[in-house]
UniProtKB/TrEMBL annotation:
Biological classification of the source: Archaea, Promethearchaeati, Promethearchaeota, Promethearchaeia, Promethearchaeales
Domain (NADPH-dependent FMN reductase-like): residue spans on this chain: 4-164
Signal peptide: none
Family label: Belongs to the SsuE family. Isf subfamily.
Name the record gives this protein: Iron-sulfur flavoprotein
Keyword field contains Flavoprotein: yes
UniProt entry tagged with the keyword Nucleotide-binding: no
Amino acid sequence: MGKKIIVIMGSPRKNGLTASLTSHFATKIDNLNSLETLTEDHKIEVEILNLVDFTVGHCIACDSCLRKPNVCPLSEKDDMGVLDKKMQEADAILVGSPSYFFNVPGILKDLIDRSRPLKMGKYKLKDKLFSVVSASGLQNGGHNAVLDVLTHWALIQGMIVISALGHPVIVSNFPSESGQMLGIKEFRKPSDLGEPSQYAVEALATRFHDLLNK
């Protein structure tokens, strides 16, 4: 394999809409890898990390990360050190997040807060490609708020935010899906992604694939 994408699945639910979006992304990358014209060096590895499988404690604002060696003392007691290493080793990062009260879930916010040492240690995530997919229960359930939080986090870390480049009118630049369908009381199963979100995810995967193989 050539480059590697880490997919951080930030939902506490392993089988919800967010998981369907990230799984569809990984499947599209696998399909692109299967093209006969690609050599092994141009195939991209995808690793999905379910945050719910990791223990990440709350930041306690001790400011130890501001001083050399710019590490968090809590990382010796939980899994943040593992996640730090995986993010640093990746060439690109995709975060999948549901909207919880127009924000990211608590487990994902803990990751964001605890990633401060990566910035203080001279931007250890700089220049990595980054994007986001989001899910919500309702059509207007907070996708933009989640996008705002996560893209700002990426920019603060020095990452390069990219978007999907599908059809310029009908495909969203940042893939999202809602549980609510057209009818006000009509809801989809988590595994039943709509065509717009599928196309957007596929366009985003293609963008990652193309940029990582430049």
